[in-house]
Design a protein that fits this description.
This protein is α/β, with parallel strands linked by helices. It has 2 domains: 11-152, Rossmann fold; 164-389, Up-down Bundle (Dehydroquinate synthase-like, alpha domain). The protein is built from 15 helices and 8 strands. The chain has helices at 17-26, 41-55, 70-83, 94-107, 154-158, 162-187, 190-197, 200-226, 237-258, 267-274, 285-300, 314-330, 348-359, 362-367, 373-389; strands spanning 11-13, 31-36, 58-63, 87-92, 111-115, 128-131, 137-141, 149-152. The strands form 2 sheets. A 6-stranded parallel sheet has the order 1-8-5-4-2-3, sandwiched between helices. Strands 6-7 form a two-stranded antiparallel ribbon. Helix 10 (267-274) crosses helix 11 and helix 10 (267-274) crosses helix 13. The protein starts with 10 loop residues before the first strand and ends with a helix.
Length: 390
């Protein structure tokens, strides 16, 4: 038997999403622990405070800064108990939302999300990604709370800086490629074959993958051209609103429907390995994942046509990662090690440690069982060199 956790339970979307969230909480959790960061929260503070006050919700505020660590989660859970909170409300970007989800899980409370950044799908994913005090990846709690409610305000998300939106787009593309790869191996004949022979939930995940890919191809460039809030081209603002909402909503839904064993391949494990380099902490999650996606495309190809990834020729694999790298560059994302703060990974001992750490992830062995150390090391070097020179 397999179990799926698809979040959130309630979607509150639109220009009045914040007010709707306050009303939702008032009926279920009149006292909340409001976990917030220092960047996104000030943007919504006045409006959120007014909405919560009008709804009769008391919010005990707890600031979170830095990575989502076990210590931070424990401290926030203790604060929730101290304040008599009936729910945890996370307001901010991915790290803040994961810390809030972790605190809700530890305290046995419902979780509600108000994402202020389109850089990740943390608001809609039923996972908690934990790091150590240095910011290095530790693990993922797949049993994280399914959000009781998520407020998606397209205008708020579209007002975020270009870099955050671009990182979210690249992270969303990773979900497209990882789920297509894992489902193709299961189905034996690419995404279409996987859809024909696997479960209804996998079919649903793949349908969303296809729609997400089409949406990003059609609108991502225009969304970035619009500028934050449409400041450069107001006519393109509807595209920016659509893309900003999609990169938060789709990947979380896809991951939930695909399940823990089918949503990751190589892109995210390579990201996790890179976080062990101190310089990587200057890069955004999606930017690091973008490098992992390029390497995955180099070793597996854009579309796996059978469960044996070697059916994609070397030329097809090269073309796949180069085309994707150009796509990212057009969005302003340069996925080479120097740009990501990971230039140290070009020294042999560090580079080899990154590759070995990525290969140790069970997701890689499942998605690419024939991938070996030498092949992955060569792919990392080739992708880095080509993107840097392009």
């Amino acid at each position: 038997m397999s179990g799926l956790r698809v979040a959130p339970a309630a979607w509150l979307r639109g220009d009045d999403a914040i007010e709707a969230l306050a009303g939702h909480l008032a009926a279920r959790a009149p006292v909340v622990l409001l976990v917030h960061g220092r960047v996104g929260y000030p943007v919504v503070r006045d409006r959120l405070d007014a909405a919560l006050a009008a709804a009769g919700v008391r919010a005990a505020r707890a600031a979170h800064e830095g990575s989502c660590t076990a210590r931070a989660i424990d401290a926030l859970a203790a604060a929730a108990a101290r304040e008599g909170a009936r729910a945890v409300l996370g307001v901010g970007g991915g790290r803040v939302l994961d810390a809030g989800k972790g605190a809700a899980l530890a305290a046995g409370l419902p979780f509600a999300a108000l994402p202020t950044s389109p850089a990740t799908c943390a608001a809609t994913a039923a996972t908690v990604v934990r790091y150590d005090e240095r910011g290095a990846h530790v693990d993922v709690l797949e049993g994280g709370p399914v959000a009781a409610a998520c407020a998606l305000d397209p205008g708020l998300l579209a007002s975020a800086p270009d870099r955050l939106l671009a990182a979210g787009v690249v992270d969303a593309w990773a979900k497209v490629h990882e789920v297509r790869l894992t489902s193709a191996r299961a189905g034996g004949n690419g995404a279409a074959g996987a859809r024909a022979v696997t479960s209804a939930t996998t079919r649903a995940a793949l349908a969303l993958v296809d729609d997400l890919a089409e949406l990003l191809r059609a609108h991502a460039s225009g969304a970035l051209a619009a500028g934050p809030g449409g400041e450069r081209d107001e006519g393109l603002l509807p595209r920016r609103r659509l893309v900003a909402e999609a990169v938060v909503a789709y990947p979380g839904l896809i991951g939930g429907l695909a399940g823990a064993d089918a949503k990751l391949a190589l892109a995210h494990p390579l990201h996790d390995a890179l976080t062990h380099l101190p310089g990587a902490h200057a890069a955004l999650h999606g930017e690091l994942v973008g490098f992992g996606t390029l390497v995955q495309l180099r070793v597996a190809g854009r579309e796996v046509r059978a469960d044996d990834a070697s059916r994609c020729t070397a030329a097809e694999r090269v073309a796949a990662f180069r085309a994707e790298a150009v796509r990212y560059a057009e969005l302003g994302v340069r996925c080479h090690l120097e740009a990501l703060g990971c230039g140290d990974a070009r020294s042999a001992p560090v580079e080899e440690a990154v590759v070995r750490r990525a290969l140790a992830d069970p997701s890689v062995a499942s998605a690419l069982p024939s991938l070996g150390f030498d092949e992955l090391l060569a792919a990392v070097r080739e992708v880095d060199a080509w993107v840097r020179a392009a």
